[in-house]
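Q: Convert this sequence to structure tokens.
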Amino acid sequence: ALWVVIYDPVWNTRMGEFRIDTNDFLQMAGRAGRPITNPITGKVFTEGRVVVLSTDQREHMYVRSHLINQEPEPVISSFERDLVYRFHGFLLYRNANEVRRLLLKSLARLSKKELVKAFRALERMGFLVEGELSELGKFVAELNLHPFAAMRFIKGLKSWRNAEDFGKRACQLVFAEVANETSSLPPHVREYNDLLKWRFVEKPYLNGTLLLVNYLAPQTIRDRAAWYMYSFEKLAEFTGFKEHALSIMRERFVLEGLSEVERAISKLSSLLQSKEAYIEVAIREFDSSSNTGKSNWLGLDVYVEGAPRGWTEPVKVVKLSGRRVDAVLPENSALLSK
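A:
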């Protein structure tokens, strides 16, 4: 390419606003100067130029210092912040002495005192015996659970005699405890329902409202929470608390069965009662006999009259029936104006 123009060094996404980093900039700028042949004269161009547009002095200084001068982002390691968790994973493949020798020669800059402290913590919890992982320690490491979180769970498990309702107790105990760990931050189960309040964002659009979807948070949180519930269920089984494990399993099934489809139907239905509603879809199928494009929106089947395959613009919802959404192209659509 002869020219590469980067219109804005700041990107806006559904996850927030962030600056282009040096690697992304170099990847985009690398297109300038790639050999290109003029289709008329046949001349081959092997040089190109990169233009970065900034809107204010602050952006200009960032572009100049970080991007044009190719200043790399600092490399930050969190390895030494949670040595007990890191060592626990290493011990699946090496004994304590081998791990100690390896890390003292590494770039981690760890002292013998730090290593000894981490190993003794694993020994006190019963996960490390004579330099090797115990059966319990190995099982916890294979689940990739933080040893401190696993130990707190086991203590709670042993102190809770009523197995029938332990699943509900586990939701409170486990997630509240694990959320304090720096290596992993699974949410409390209640946070999933709270976050669903922010699942949809309403924005004015034409003569109605465009219903945007926050695709990131709820599904990520639910999956994370369900994974921890599954891990603790298996840990309860391994330690002999089978009835407690069944109680956790029932709560896990409830968590995994939370229906986002019903929430989407409810939100869209309430919006249609007072406003004209629009949703964003990507048409993947097209039925030429009925001149209808088909898509899926949060588990709902969407049928859009006149929408061709590849359509990615908002569509106007005209009817909601169960899990079926009937929609049409907006009045200002270029397709309708033809």
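The first strand starts at residue 3 and ends at 6.
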